[in-house]
Automatic annotation (TrEMBL):
<dbReference type="InterPro" id="IPR018883">
    <property type="entry name" value="Delta_CA"/>
</dbReference>
<keyword id="KW-0732">Signal</keyword>
<feature type="signal peptide">
    <location>
        <begin position="1"/>
        <end position="24"/>
    </location>
</feature>
<dbReference type="Pfam" id="PF10563">
    <property type="entry name" value="CA_like"/>
</dbReference>
<protein>
    <recommendedName>
        <fullName>Carbonic anhydrase</fullName>
    </recommendedName>
</protein>
Length: 433
């Protein structure tokens, strides 16, 4: 159930069946005889009568994306227009894609051997077109809108204390209160109700926030060394990502925490590790347009200009944060992680049942308790509980990110975690509603 081979993104089967003959790569005319070890089926083996999978109860989502793949024939281009392209490996710093062997395994596991004309069960498989072309020809209006004035540069935290410029990530444990007296009050309704939309998704290696008993210094994991960009320049991977706080779920005796997943779209990720996901929101985002999601996220936050951010900034810009341990178990699959924090407060895991609200700043390892962020105050809405999520949920999110009009490939890996802000830099307005 939790094996990598049966991940929801490993269903690139129909493309193998349809495209390989068209590519003229020497495969037999009968694609089925190439995808299966034998052209006949076991007479005692039950065949799916309607093409449905016998052994794939998962919700399988295929994101057939990555631009730049060179196709070898006009016939292949015809299939591309209808079905998309098989993702190809981009090297160590890019999405790995799927091997032909994984495609073959999925085809066989779905019960297609011996009946290549059968159809995949639409309730369990999704084939998503992803040609290199698009009807959207407008230039990205958000590109380069991140402020470049010196007033937005990091600055000494001693000045932040004097000027009451609150920082994040903070301690969000119930009952905690920061030591910085501020006038700002966090936005305590949903961001949607405030006219904000998500403009990016990214995540950090370990939790930047502290929630005692959930993600803290006593948490454990597999503790891989991850590479990070080392700061604001998202084109570089120079330093080892700083590991933040970890959750308490990890169990080295349980294979769902230790069986690695074959990542196709996310980069440098690992089962058994803790990650804090951030969804920046803005009233100045290109909400409801093909340019809503941006990397870097600052381009999304400032896309439509400062006039949309007038007034109390913390009511115009905010971040959702939720902490997960990744497991190799499809019982923990969620199909739409890109769109925002999971909200299921009455469910078994209590997603979003206990949210801390406070004002702070942007985070990341270019800031600490010596150098602070000038992007403040903004509202933070942080789920205080750590949750389990399947690796396939993250990989599906990365596939969705690659479908966006803006290039989000610099956010497919985990960023380093800022050290916990000191009490004197944390706002005194933490609340739970």
């Amino acid at each position: 159930m939790g094996s990598a081979r049966k991940s929801p993104l490993a269903a690139a089967v129909l493309l193998g069946v349809l495209m390989w003959p068209a590519l003229g790569t020497g495969c037999p005319d009968d694609a089925d005889s190439d995808l299966c070890d034998a052209t006949t089926t076991d007479p005692d083996e039950e065949l799916p009568t309607s093409g449905a999978s016998r052994s794939a109860p998962l919700v399988l989502s295929l994101a057939l994306a990555l631009s730049g793949h060179k196709h070898q024939s006009a016939a292949a281009l015809g299939w591309l227009a209808a079905l998309g392209s098989v993702p190809m490996a981009l090297g160590a710093d890019g999405p790995a894609g799927y091997t032909c062997g994984a495609v073959k395994d999925m085809y066989k596991d779905a019960g297609c051997c011996g009946q290549p004309d059968a159809t995949f069960d639409v309730a369990n498989y999704q084939i998503i077109p992803a040609p290199d072309t698009s009807v959207i020809t407008t230039a990205n209006p958000c590109e380069g809108t991140k402020p470049t004035a010196s007033g937005f540069d990091n600055f000494p935290c001693a000045d932040a204390i004097v000027g009451a410029v609150e920082q994040a990530g903070a301690n969000v444990t119930e009952g905690y209160m920061g030591g910085m007296a501020v006038d700002a009050t966090p936005w305590n309704l949903t961001y949607l109700e405030g006219g904000l939309c998500p403009v990016n998704v990214h995540w950090h290696y370990g939790a930047e926030h502290l929630s005692v008993g959930q993600f803290d210094e006593d948490g454990t994991g597999r503790n891989f060394s991850e590479e990070d960009d080392g700061g604001e320049d998202l084109t570089r991977r120079l330093a080892v990502a700083r590991l933040g706080f970890q959750c308490h779920h990890f169990d080295e005796a349980d294979p769902k925490f230790t069986t690695e997943y074959e990542w196709a779209y996310c980069v440098g990720m690992h089962v058994g590790e803790t990650y804090e996901v951030h969804w920046p929101h803005s009233a100045a985002g290109a909400c409801g347009t093909p340019f809503q999601y941006q990397t870097p996220f600052y381009d999304g936050v400032f896309c439509r200009g400062a006039t949309y951010l007038a007034g109390e900034l913390q009511h115009k810009v905010g971040v959702q944060a939720q902490v997960f341990v990744i497991v190799n178990d499809e019982d923990y699959f969620y199909p739409d992680l890109m769109r925002g924090m999971i909200m299921d407060p009455l469910g078994a895991q209590g997603f979003g049942a206990d949210i801390a609200y406070y004002t702070g700043s942007t985070t990341g390892t270019s800031r600490d308790n010596e150098m602070c962020s000038a992007y403040s105050p903004i509202t933070w809405q942080v789920d205080r509980k750590c949750h389990l999520i399947s690796a396939s949920s993250f990989d599906k999110m990365c596939a969705d990110m690659l479908q966006q009009k803006d290039d989000m490939s610099d956010d497919l890996h985990a960023h380093g975690a800022r050290e916990l802000v000191s009490d004197e830099l944390a706002a005194d307005n933490l609340q739970r509603l």
